[in-house]
Backbone:
C-alpha cells in the first residue's frame, strides 16, 4: 500500500519537477517568470499537436514506433513552450517591461491559447500512444518493491530527475553556472566583467521554459494516460512555489517535488470527505510559506533569492 | 624623457537625452604613468572613463590604443584592449568569494596556432619508424587533437583548488587577502583589493580607478598608493579619478582637468599647484577656506548618555556612547566608515527603536528636557523638536529617486494642506528657491532626482532639511562624492546654521575638513567613543590614532560570528 502511494507520489511529482527545474534556471538568471503555468499548458498542447501529427502519419496504429511517439511530442512541447519563454524574454529583457505583469499576462495567454487549440487537436489513439510514455524498462514486476519504486516509471520521470541533476551540476560546478548566477545577482557586475547579460537571460529563460513545458506534456501523456484535463496551470503554480521551497536548488527540487506530490495525493489515500481533501491540498502552499519565513529569519545570504530577481537591466541607466 | 602614448581619446562627445556629459573631450595617457583626472561633479570624468571601459558608447569621437583606432562596444572589448576599470561602486557579487568574483566572465583562450603546429609535426612520420613508434605517434596525435576540448572542459569545470594563479598575482604586488572569503564578509578596503586583483588578473595594462580613496582610512590610502606606484613601475598606465587635491599632488605624474564635460588642460603635477588646479576646475578663482567663528552662547541642546545598540546580526554597534551637542557649535564625528556613526544618528532621529540609554533634548524656548529615545520620527516632530537629518544614503533614506524635486520637498510637508488635498504651491516655491540659492544644475523642478548628479542630489537634500529651520542638524557624509565647489557650498551652509544657533552634528571622512570646520571632534571606533578633541588644537595624527584604537580587538570576534 505504502509502496503504491510512494510510486504514485513520485509519478505525480514529475509534472512540477520539470516546472521547478525550468523556473529555477530562469530565476537564477534574474527573470521571475510567473508565466510558467501558461508555459506548461502550451507545452502540453504543443506536445499533443506533435503526437497528433505523428499518429496521423501512420497508416495503422499498430505500427507505432515507441521511440518516435515520445521524441516528437517532446520536441514539439519544447518548441512551443520555449517560444513562449522567448516572447516573455523579448518583453522583459529587450523592451524592459515589468516582469510580474508580463508573467501573469503570459499565463493568462497560455491558458487561453491551450484551451482553444486543444479542441482542434484530434486526440484519437492517444491512449495507445501514451503507452510509449509509461513503459520504459521491460521489467514491470509489481510485487517487488524495488522494481516498483525505481524501475517501473515512464521515460519522462527519469528524464526529469536527470535534467534536475544536470541543472544542479551546471549551476554549482561550472563557469556557465557561475556566470548565470552572477547575471541574476548583479547584472551590472556581470556586464562589467564581460558577460553578455542579454544572451544569458534569453538562454536561461528559453531553456527553462522549454524544460517547464515538458511538465505539461508529462501530465497529459503519462500521468493522465493521454486524456485531457484543464488543470495544468494549477501544477504550474505549485512548481513556482516549489522553487522557493527548494531555495533555488534543482537537486533539492527533486526531493521537494516528491514531498509536494505526496502531500498533494495523500488525501486520496486517506478516508476523508471531499471538503477535507481540498483543505489538505493546501498543505504544500502552507509548507512553502513556512520555508519562506524560516529562510528569511535565518537570513543566510546563500539561501536568499537572486538579488536582482524581477528587475530589468539597462547598461546606460544612470543611478 | 617622453613616454609612449598608450591611449588617446579624441573629440569624444556623449549625450544623455538633453544632457551633454562630454563635449569634444581629448585625453591621452602615457605608458607607465599615473594620470589624475580632476573635475567638479558632473564634469563628466566618470562618463569619459566609462566609455573606455565599454559601459557607455561615445556618440562622437575616436579612441586610439597604441596609435591604432579601436571601437569599444562592451566591457569585453575593453578587456580585450587590456583596459580595466575599478568602479566607484564596486562591481562584485556579494554571495561569491574573491576567487569566483575574479574569474567571473573570463573568456576561454586557447593557443590554436601552437596546437596546429604540434598536430602538423606529429602527422609527419620521422624517417623509418617501427610499428610501435607509429602507434605511439598516433596516440600522441589523438591527444593533441583532443587538447582543445580538454582545455575547454578544464576551463569550464570549477575545481576546488582553483585560484593558484590569482594567489601569485596577489603575492607579486603584495596584497594580503583571504581569497576564499565571501564578499559580504569583507571590509571596503578588502573589496577594493579584490577589484584591483581582478583587473590585474584579466591582464589589464591600463587601470582606471574611480575615486578609490573615498572610503579608505589615511593608512589604507597610503597602502593603496604604494600599490599604484608599484604598478606604474611595472609599466602599467593608471588613471585615477579623484576630488582630493592633496592626493592628486602626491601620487600623480600628470593631471588632466575636465570642466563641464570639456577637457581644459593636462599639466605636469610637478609644475602646478593646488590653487592653479582649482581655478582650472571651477573656471574662476575660489577661496578655499572655511571661516570658523567662535561659538556664540553655546548651551546644551542634545545630550546622549550611555547609548548602546545591538543590531539584527547580534553585533554591538554602539557601546555606551555619551556626548553633548551644543547650540551654535559644530560637533564633528570622525571614524572609519561603519564604526557606528550611522546607527548613532539613526538612534537620535528615532529610526533605531532598540537602543538603550538616554537621549535628551533641551527645548530652546524653555530649556525643558524632553526624552527622544524610543520615539518615532513623527512623535519627535509632534513634540515640537525640530530635528533635521541628512542621511548618508541620499537616494535610499533621504530622497525618493523616482520622484521630482517638488514631490521630494513634500516628503516633509505632505501632512499640510486642506482636508486630504496636499498643498503643492509652497513646496514648489521652496524647490525653486533651493535650485536658485544653491545653484542646483537641473533642467527644471519636474525631473526625477535620480537623474541629477550626486552633488546636485545632495544640494536638494540639504536644502530641504535646512528649510525646515531645525534646532539640531545632523549630516552624515554630506560631501561624499562632491566636488570642491559644492563641498564648500555645503560647509558654508553648515556654518551659517551654526551661526544661527543650530546644534550641528557633522559626520565626515576627510580629517583635514573636520579639523578646519568643527569646534569639537568626537572620534568613534567600533561603536565606542575613543575621544573628544578640540577642533582648533587637534592634529590629524592624533585623530587617526583614536580612529583605530582597539580596532583589532573589536573586529575579530564579529567576523568570526558572521562566518559561523
Residues:
Amino acid at each position: 500500500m505504502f509502496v503504491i502511494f510512494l510510486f504514485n507520489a513520485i509519478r505525480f511529482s514529475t509534472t512540477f519537477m520539470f516546472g521547478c527545474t525550468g523556473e529555477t534556471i530562469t530565476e537564477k538568471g534574474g527573470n521571475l517568470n510567473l508565466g510558467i503555468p501558461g508555459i506548461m499548458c502550451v507545452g502540453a498542447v504543443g506536445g499533443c499537436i506533435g503526437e497528433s501529427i505523428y499518429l496521423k502519419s501512420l497508416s495503422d496504429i499498430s505500427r507505432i514506433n515507441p521511440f518516435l511517439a515520445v521524441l516528437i511530442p517532446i520536441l514539439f512541447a519544447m518548441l512551443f513552450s520555449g517560444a513562449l519563454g522567448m516572447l516573455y524574454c523579448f518583453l522583459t529583457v529587450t523592451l524592459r517591461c515589468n516582469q510580474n505583469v508580463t508573467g501573469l499576462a503570459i499565463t493568462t495567454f497560455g491558458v487561453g491559447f491551450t484551451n482553444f487549440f486543444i479542441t482542434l487537436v484530434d486526440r484519437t489513439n492517444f491512449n495507445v500512444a501514451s503507452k510509449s510514455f509509461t513503459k520504459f524498462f521491460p521489467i514491470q514486476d509489481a510485487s517487488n518493491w524495488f522494481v516498483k519504486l525505481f524501475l517501473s516509471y515512464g521515460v519522462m520521470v527519469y528524464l526529469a530527475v536527470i535534467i534536475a541533476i544536470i541543472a544542479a551540476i551546471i549551476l554549482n560546478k561550472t563557469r556557465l553556472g557561475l556566470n548565470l548566477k552572477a547575471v541574476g545577482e548583479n547584472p551590472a557586475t556581470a556586464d562589467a566583467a564581460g558577460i553578455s547579460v542579454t544572451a544569458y537571460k534569453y538562454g536561461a529563460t528559453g531553456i527553462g521554459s522549454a524544460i517547464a513545458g515538458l511538465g505539461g506534456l508529462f501530465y497529459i501523456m503519462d500521468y493522465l494516460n493521454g486524456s485531457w484535463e484543464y488543470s495544468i496551470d494549477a501544477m504550474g503554480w505549485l512548481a513556482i512555489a516549489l522553487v522557493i521551497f527548494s531555495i533555488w536548488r534543482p537537486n533539492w527540487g527533486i526531493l521537494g517535488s516528491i514531498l509536494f506530490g505526496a502531500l498533494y495525493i495523500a488525501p486520496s489515500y486517506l478516508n476523508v470527505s471531499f471538503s477535507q481533501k481540498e483543505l489538505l491540498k493546501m498543505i504544500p502552499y502552507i509548507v512553502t510559506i513556512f520555508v519562506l519565513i524560516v529562510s528569511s529569519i535565518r537570513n543566510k545570504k546563500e539561501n536568499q533569492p537572486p538579488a536582482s530577481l524581477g528587475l530589468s537591466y539597462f547598461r546606460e541607466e544612470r543611478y | 624623457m617622453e613616454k609612449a602614448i598608450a591611449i588617446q581619446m579624441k573629440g569624444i562627445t556623449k549625450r544623455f537625452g538633453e544632457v551633454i556629459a562630454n563635449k569634444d573631450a581629448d585625453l591621452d595617457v602615457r605608458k607607465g604613468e599615473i594620470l589624475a583626472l580632476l573635475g567638479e561633479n558632473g564634469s563628466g570624468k566618470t562618463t569619459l572613463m566609462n566609455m573606455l571601459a565599454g559601459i557607455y558608447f561615445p556618440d562622437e569621437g575616436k579612441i586610439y590604443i597604441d596609435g591604432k583606432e579601436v571601437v569599444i562596444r562592451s566591457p569585453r572589448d575593453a578587456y580585450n584592449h587590456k583596459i580595466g576599470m575599478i568602479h566607484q561602486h564596486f562591481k562584485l557579487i556579494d554571495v561569491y568569494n574573491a576567487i569566483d568574483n575574479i574569474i567571473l566572465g573570463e573568456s576561454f583562450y586557447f593557443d590554436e596556432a601552437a596546437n596546429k603546429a604540434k598536430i602538423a609535426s606529429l602527422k609527419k612520420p620521422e624517417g623509418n619508424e617501427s610499428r610501435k613508434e607509429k602507434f605511439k605517434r598516433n596516440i600522441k596525435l589523438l591527444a593533441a587533437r583532443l587538447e582543445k576540448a580538454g582545455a575547454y572542459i578544464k576551463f569550464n569545470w570549477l575545481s576546488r583548488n582553483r585560484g593558484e594563479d590569482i594567489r601569485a598575482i596577489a603575492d607579486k604586488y603584495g596584497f594580503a587577502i583571504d581569497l576564499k572569503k565571501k564578499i559580504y564578509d569583507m571590509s571596503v578596503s578588502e573589496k577594493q583589493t579584490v577589484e584591483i586583483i581582478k583587473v590585474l588578473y584579466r591582464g589589464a595594462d591600463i587601470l582606471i580607478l574611480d575615486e578609490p580613496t573615498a572610503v579608505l582610512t589615511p593608512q589604507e590610502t597610503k597602502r593603496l598608493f604604494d600599490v599604484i606606484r608599484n604598478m606604474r613601475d611595472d609599466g602599467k598606465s593608471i588613471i585615477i579619478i579623484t576630488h582630493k587635491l592633496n592626493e592628486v599632488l602626491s601620487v600623480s605624474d600628470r593631471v588632466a582637468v575636465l570642466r563641464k564635460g570639456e577637457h581644459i588642460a593636462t599639466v605636469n603635477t610637478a609644475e602646478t599647484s593646488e590653487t592653479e588646479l582649482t581655478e582650472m576646475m571651477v573656471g574662476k578663482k575660489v577661496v578655499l577656506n572655511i571661516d570658523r567663528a567662535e561659538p556664540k552662547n553655546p548651551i546644551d541642546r542634545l545630550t546622549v548618555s550611555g547609548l548602546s545598540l545591538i543590531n539584527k546580526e547580534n553585533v554591538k554597534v554602539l557601546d555606551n556612547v555619551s556626548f553633548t551637542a551644543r547650540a551654535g557649535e559644530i560637533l564633528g564625528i570622525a571614524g572609519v566608515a561603519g564604526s557606528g556613526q550611522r546607527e548613532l544618528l539613526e538612534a537620535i532621529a528615532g529610526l533605531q527603536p532598540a537602543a538603550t540609554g538616554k537621549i535628551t533634548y533641551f527645548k530652546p524656548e524653555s530649556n525643558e528636557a524632553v526624552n527622544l529615545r524610543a520615539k518615532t520620527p513623527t512623535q519627535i516632530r509632534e513634540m515640537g523638536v525640530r530635528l533635521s537629518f541628512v542621511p548618508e544614503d541620499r537616494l535610499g533614506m533621504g530622497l525618493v529617486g523616482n520622484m521630482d524635486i517638488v514631490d521630494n520637498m513634500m516628503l516633509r510637508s505632505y501632512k499640510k494642506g486642506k482636508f486630504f488635498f496636499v498643498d503643492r504651491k509652497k513646496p514648489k516655491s521652496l524647490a525653486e528657491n533651493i535650485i536658485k540659492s544653491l545653484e542646483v544644475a537641473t533642467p527644471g523642478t519636474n525631473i526625477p532626482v535620480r537623474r541629477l548628479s550626486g552633488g546636485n542630489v545632495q544640494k536638494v537634500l540639504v536644502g530641504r532639511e535646512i528649510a525646515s529651520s531645525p534646532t539640531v542638524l545632523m549630516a552624515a557624509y554630506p560631501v561624499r562624492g562632491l566636488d570642491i565647489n559644492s563641498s564648500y557650498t555645503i560647509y558654508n551652509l553648515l556654518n551659517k546654521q551654526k551661526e544661527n544657533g543650530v546644534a550641528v552634528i557633522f559626520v565626515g571622512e576627510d580629517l583635514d575638513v573636520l579639523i578646519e570646520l568643527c569646534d569639537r571632534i568626537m572620534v568613534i571606533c567600533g561603536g565606542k567613543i575613543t575621544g573628544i578633541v578640540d577642533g582648533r588644537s587637534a592634529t590629524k595624527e592624533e585623530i587617526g590614532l583614536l580612529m583605530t584604537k582597539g580596532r583589532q580587538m573589536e573586529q575579530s570576534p564579529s567576523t568570526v560570528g558572521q562566518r559561523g
Summary: The two ends of chain A are 61 Å apart (CA to CA).
